[in-house]
């Protein structure tokens, strides 16, 4: 087996229903070819949160082994995700006086540091610092203030915080599986990289990743993130509703959902029938597919009402000229786009991973958005000095040769600051 090459990056998505490792080969112009994928059923993850180490380590090991076989390389380092209702998104700002009446890199980093210096809940740490825009004196909405003149520099940022223990738990799992973890990235940010176009991010868009246990939301406007949230609902809730409503075991409810499910009753013909196994050896019965859709529709409506509330928290529907983009395995369900449009009144499209080559057919499912986004995020962020400077303060990246190399480059660039 060939050893791991410098230009191979691996995204490891530890989800509620599956763990998947995606291997990307990065070309000279930063184009990514997917050359391997491995998946395993996830055990030990509840609503996006790792709550059992051993089964999670086993699932990671299986997914990595499969990906190694397919890609023909050995994997030592992964870019892993984090999700769960304990992640929090908040906006903050920082202000500094410009000593030499001009913005240098040092002031840029100081103002970002100021914006990060907010009181956090016990045990929380800042996972992402995402600059939104800068102001100098009365001039607002500056994307890159470097070199501009003025007296007072202000930065507006979006912060995503996570409990330190949750970051430790996911990195403990990867470490026990024999893998280094340079960076931990939240699902909504990773999926945005794989799914959204730059135009959508500029015009205003909500990325909604509906998985098994969570729905991750990232709202973009003017090219930056203005709001994020993790809603503790997903496809598992639909499966549970079906299990109760049709009195059938969970695995059968999951099978029925995937095979016959539809989120919109009016899209199903009256005469369509499905066969459902009974609980505890009771005989199978025939039911109308509309009855199944009747069970699913209210849960999906509820989900998009929660998304709508997040959109309103972020500033309202007017922000989102590009509407909603849905991804995540649960968006394979027929009728999701239609219900989302009806509830939010916004244009909605379903997004599958973009910006990649190689095994496109194999990874074109919306369930792989996070795994692919983790690779793309790693590539794009290694050139972002603000991102690298904020990584310096994070506890989990230490020991990664890749992050050390990124930081060395950034320090050279920001010479006089460090
Ligand atoms: N064809 C389909 N029709 C309906 N639902 C589907 C289909 N395919 C997958 N799903 C559902 O998608 C969900 C899994 O999606 P995904 O793989 O994105 O979740 P995950 O990443 O493991 O979980 P999370 O992101 O919530 O931690 C499951 O609830 C599954 O039942
Ligand atoms: Mg997921």
Structural summary, described in words:
By secondary structure, the protein is an alpha/beta fold. Helix 1 packs across helix 3, helix 4 crosses helix 10 and helix 6 packs antiparallel against helix 8. The chain starts with 7 loop residues before the first strand and ends in a 5-residue tail after the last helix. The protein has a domain at 198-353: ATPase, nucleotide binding domain (Nucleotidyltransferase, domain 5, 2-Layer Sandwich), CATH 3.30.420. The longest helix has 26 residues, at 289-314. Strand 15 and strand 16 form a beta hairpin. Helices cover 36% and strands 27% of the residues. Bound molecules: adenosine-5'-triphosphate and magnesium ion (MG). Magnesium ion (MG) binds at residues 15, 187, 211, 328, 370.
């Amino acid at each position: 087996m060939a050893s791991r090459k410098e230009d191979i990056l691996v995204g490891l998505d530890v989800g509620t229903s599956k763990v998947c490792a995606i291997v990307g080969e990065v070309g000279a112009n930063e184009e990514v070819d997917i050359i391997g994928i491995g998946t395993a059923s996830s055990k030990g993850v509840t609503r996006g949160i790792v709550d059992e180490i051993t089964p999670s380590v086993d699932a990671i090991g299986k997914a990595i082994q499969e990906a190694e076989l397919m890609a023909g390389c050995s994997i030592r380092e992964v870019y892993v995700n984090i999700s769960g209702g304990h992640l929090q998104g908040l906006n903050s700002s920082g202000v500094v006086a410009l000593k030499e009446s001009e913005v240098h890199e040092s002031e840029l980093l100081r103002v970002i540091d100021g914006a990060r210096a907010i009181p956090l809940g016990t045990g929380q740490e800042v996972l992402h610092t995402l600059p939104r825009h800068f102001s100098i004196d009365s001039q607002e909405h500056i994307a890159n203030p470097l070199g501009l003149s003025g007296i007072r520099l202000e930065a507006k940022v979006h912060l995503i915080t996570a409990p330190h223990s949750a970051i430790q738990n996911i990195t403990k799992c990867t470490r026990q599986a024999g893998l280094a973890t340079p960076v931990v990235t939240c699902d909504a940010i990773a999926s945005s990289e794989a799914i959204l176009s730059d135009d959508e991010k500029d015009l205003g868009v909500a990325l909604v990743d509906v998985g098994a246990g969570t729905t991750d939301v990232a709202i973009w406007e003017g090219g930056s993130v203005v709001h994020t949230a993790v809603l503790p609902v997903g496809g598992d809730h639909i499966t549970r509703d079906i299990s109760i409503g049709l009195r059938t075991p969970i695995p059968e409810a999951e099978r029925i959902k995937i095979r016959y499910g539809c989120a919109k009753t009016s899209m199903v013909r009256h005469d369509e029938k499905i066969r459902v196994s009974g609980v505890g050896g009771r005989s199978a019965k025939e039911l109308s597919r509309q009855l199944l859709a009747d069970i699913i529709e209210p849960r999906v409506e509820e989900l998009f009402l929660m998304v709508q509330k997040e959109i309103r928290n972020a500033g309202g529907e007017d922000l989102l000229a590009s509407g909603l983009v849905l991804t995540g395995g649960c968006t394979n369900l027929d009728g999701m786009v239609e219900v989302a449009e009806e509830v939010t009144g916004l244009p909605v499209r379903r997004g599958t991973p973009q910006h990649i080559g190689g095994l496109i057919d194999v990874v074109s499912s919306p369930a792989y958005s996070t795994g692919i986004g983790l690779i793309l995020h790693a590539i794009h962020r290694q050139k972002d000095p603000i991102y690298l400077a904020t990584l310096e303060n994070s506890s989990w990246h230490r020991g990664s040769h890749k992050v050390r190399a990124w930081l060395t480059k950034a320090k050279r660039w920001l010479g006089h600051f460090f």
